[in-house]
């Protein structure tokens, strides 16, 4: 299988978008405390003004701002203090001209008042009098009703992943339940006669099933519910039955391929056998990850990933992740956080192929990042855990050079254990 | 409370480090599938070589590399094919000089072989013969036993947050259970006479309890187990009892403060009343977040955060997050993923105070980021959800200028709903 007989990464991504657009998993309502990290299924709109009443943003005195017109150190305005606003209480106070009321931060503005003067600028010759020695603008130190969140404004957009800040905005607006997408249910089938599960003794010639665990963790991180179907060995019939079961019970199927040509042939044959349209591409011009298979059985996408864990994870980031985002109704399908970085050495590549190379990122004195490519024979598992990010060398380049500024896709947020600074 | 009577952010962080160093929550063993996102409690060391046997990285023929010495198009080396290596099987084959064996990708190298020639470079005049027209180096297309992960090497370092790649490395090495730190149990107490829970009707002068939800989500994202203790109102005695209960049952307590001076006085009095050393600082020179309280009751840290959600979340990122990381035994206490960005407009600041301003990030044609500050009256909740990152203006600056390159702390990884590109 020559690279020039493979489809390009962009073609593969376009095909996945075309096949999965419109296929979105069902909606469910969850309590606000369970909404973190979920995908909003609908726009959530504010049913009220926030704040519901005009509030003070400081400790001070509520006044009618017009009463301070012309006030100065030489000629302060004089007010009569007619009462005190208490937190959490509706105030019965109504200010007439020349009147003021004490008010705490967050207190509800009395009727008639339109501004608050801070304690620092108010002098009280006696408890019932107040001198203000500067002019106060209308709305000064006040948040008016609806100024933060207006009735009818959108609190959360369909397709957004819900963050702690969204949770705060929703709580502030009294939203107790949130419409979210159900987690995408993904089956993982491992194939390969050489594989054994991680808790079994390894005999000569055998290796452990890494991909069920590594891919399972990756898909879990992306919000999927993972259904591990174990290792399928020995016969085409057993593999076909496992795949049939997976297609029936899940919304996406990922086959972690045996490394042999025979195992790949099994996968193609079974996908085509299960239903139309069957296999849509087999082989993409990327490294690592060339022997990747993608097909659809009715509306269910099926990926046949390479057996090498590094290749399987690279292809997952490039193809499976966009598919998960499409199925869960996310807006940003291909967005990845990336940073520009200066390369520490030349890296050769082949035109006509998209290359992905793990790098370590180091912060430089000038604030920029430096990217040091991590090399090793294809399939070294250790390399995965040593990378802070991935350098993408596009298919029109024959390499990138030391000192060149390249774009690095970040693998792990600092919160998740990256190695920043 | 003047900014110059507050301690600095750095002093506050140093004090937290000093108080919490050595206080780490207990260890537990979890199955590998449950280890994602947890903090490694011990170094995990490989008990074997990976791969356990020398493997081929291509489909081809295993040979003794010395037998190809001098081979060329003009004078190819001739081999006798003595058998075929099967996947997942120990091979009984032993190569004598001049002999070769067919081998699949991942197959176990026969005794005597030290390299593999790819199918493309091998010609078979008949099934039992093989011509190789180039010289093959020792170890070519072979991963030798232990080359990926050597016996005794560290798979996972104490204090690392476990990523999908770590899960892969652990699976490959047969690690079925992982020693991790228990989640830090954090109590959240909301105080403030004006607060009502989000599912209750809001009367005049009242506002909803945002912080229990927003802070709960933030701490959950950081791996904590959140214990919401609800809204405590009305009396000092009730507040004292709630705090006592929180200190008894949790490893950290966060009080989301009422905005009034009275509520802050309650907090200080209760922390001091519960035990030594009591309140350690009250007021830090940052904006937003000045009226922050920190104390210790025996070995339990207690934070009194400002009532404004934006201030509470800003202080949480700067002080509570490092505390969570210390308690859970993480290595990187202050690391945050940040990017340099060009500022779109001037932002004034006060020397002697660390300012934090929300920004939107936009990707520029040259690959760099542009940061547009989001302004609004202090305490606008909506601003939280509109920020992609936070600009930190250090205390020695009186402002930052349009066009200046500033450092932006990223709030949300693209995976979590940021707005990259």
Write the layout of secondary structure elements.
The structure is a homodimer of 421-residue chains.
Chain A: H1 9-20, E1 27-31, E2 44-45, E3 55-56, E4 60-63, E5 77-84, E6 99-103, E7 115-118, E8 122-123, E9 129-132, E10 142-143, E11 154-156, H2 164-172, E12 177-181, E13 185-191, E14 195-196, E15 207-208, H3 211-221, E16 225-232, H4 236-249, E17 252-256, H5 261-274, E18 277-282, E19 286-287, E20 293-297, E21 300-305, H6 309-327, E22 338-343, E23 347-348, E24 354-363, E25 369-373, H7 382-386, E26 389-393, E27 399-400, E28 405-410
Parallel strand pairs in A: 5-6, 13-16, 13-17, 14-15, 17-21, 19-24, 22-25
Antiparallel strand pairs in A: 1-12, 2-11, 3-10, 4-6, 4-7, 5-9, 8-9, 18-20, 20-21, 22-28, 23-27, 24-25, 24-26, 26-28
Family (chains A, B): Belongs to the MoeA family.
Function (chains A, B): May be involved in the biosynthesis of molybdopterin. Catalyzes the insertion of molybdate into adenylated molybdopterin with the concomitant release of AMP.
Protein name (chains A, B): Molybdopterin molybdenumtransferase
Q: Care to describe what's here?
A:
The structure is a homodimer of 421-residue chains. Chain A is an alpha/beta fold. Chain A has 4 domains: 3-25 and 183-327, Molybdenum Cofactor Biosythetic Enzyme, Chain A; 28-50 and 149-181, Molybdopterin biosynthesis moea protein, domain 2 (Alpha-Beta Complex); 55-143, Molybdopterin biosynthesis moea protein, domain 3 (Molybdopterin biosynthesis moeA protein, domain 3, Beta Complex); 338-416, Beta-clip, CATH 2.40.340.10. In chain A, 20% of the residues lie in helices and 30% in strands. Chain A contains 7 helices and 28 strands. In chain A, the strands form 8 sheets. Chain A has a 6-stranded mixed beta sheet with strand order 7-4-6-5-9-8, with no helix packed on it. In chain A, α3 (211-221) runs parallel beside α6 (309-327) and α4 crosses α5 (261-274). The first copy, chain A, is elongated, with a radius of gyration of 31 Å. Mean pLDDT of chain A is 91; it is low at 414-421. The interface between A and B is large, with 110 and 110 residues.
């Amino acid at each position: 299988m020559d690279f020039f007989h493979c489809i390009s990464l962009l073609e593969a991504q376009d095909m996945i978008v075309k096949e999965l657009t419109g296929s979105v998993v069902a909606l469910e309502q969850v309590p606000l405390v369970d909404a973190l990290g979920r995908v909003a299924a609908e726009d959530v709109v504010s049913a009220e003004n926030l704040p519901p009443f005009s509030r003070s943003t400081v400790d001070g005195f509520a006044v009618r701002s017009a009463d301070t017109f012309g006030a100065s150190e030489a000629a302060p305005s004089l007010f009569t203090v007619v009462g005190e606003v208490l937190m959490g209480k509706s105030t019965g106070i109504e200010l007439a001209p020349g009147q003021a009321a004490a008010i705490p931060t967050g207190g509800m503005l009395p009727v008639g008042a339109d501004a608050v003067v801070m304690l620092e600028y108010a002098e009280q010759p006696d408890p019932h009098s107040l001198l203000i020695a500067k002019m106060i603008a209308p709305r000064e130190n006040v948040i008016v009703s609806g100024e933060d969140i207006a009735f009818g404004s959108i609190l959360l957009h369909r397709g957004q992943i819900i963050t702690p800040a969204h949770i705060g905005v929703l709580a502030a607006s009294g939203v107790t339940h949130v419409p979210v997408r159900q987690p995408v249910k993904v089956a993982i089938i491992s194939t390969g006669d050489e594989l054994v599960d991680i808790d079994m003794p390894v005999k000569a010639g055998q290796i452990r099933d890494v991909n069920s665990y590594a891919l399972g963790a990756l898909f879990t991180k992306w919000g999927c519910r993972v259904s591990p179907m174990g290792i399928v060995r020995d016969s085409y019939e057993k593999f076909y039955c496992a795949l049939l079961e997976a297609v029936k019970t899940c919304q996406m199927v990922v086959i972690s391929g045996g490394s042999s040509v025979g195992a790949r042939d099994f996968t193609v044959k079974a996908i085509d056998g299960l239903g139309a349209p069957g296999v849509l591409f087999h082989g993409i011009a990327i490294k690592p990850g060339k022997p990747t298979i993608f097909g659809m059985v009715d509306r269910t996408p099926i990926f046949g990933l390479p057996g090498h864990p590094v290749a399987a994870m690279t292809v997952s980031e490039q193809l499976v992740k966009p598919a998960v985002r499409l199925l869960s109704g996310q807006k940003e399908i291909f967005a990845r956080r990336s940073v520009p970085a200066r390369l520490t050495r030349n890296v050769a590549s082949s035109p006509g192929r998209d290359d992905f190379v793990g790098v370590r990122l180091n912060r430089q004195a000038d604030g920029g990042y430096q990217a040091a490519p991590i090399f090793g024979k294809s399939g070294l598992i250790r390399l995965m855990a040593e990378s802070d990010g991935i350098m993408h060398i596009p298919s029109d380049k024959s390499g990138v050079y030391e000192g060149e500024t390249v774009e690095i896709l970040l693998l792990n947020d600092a919160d998740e254990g990256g190695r920043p600074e």
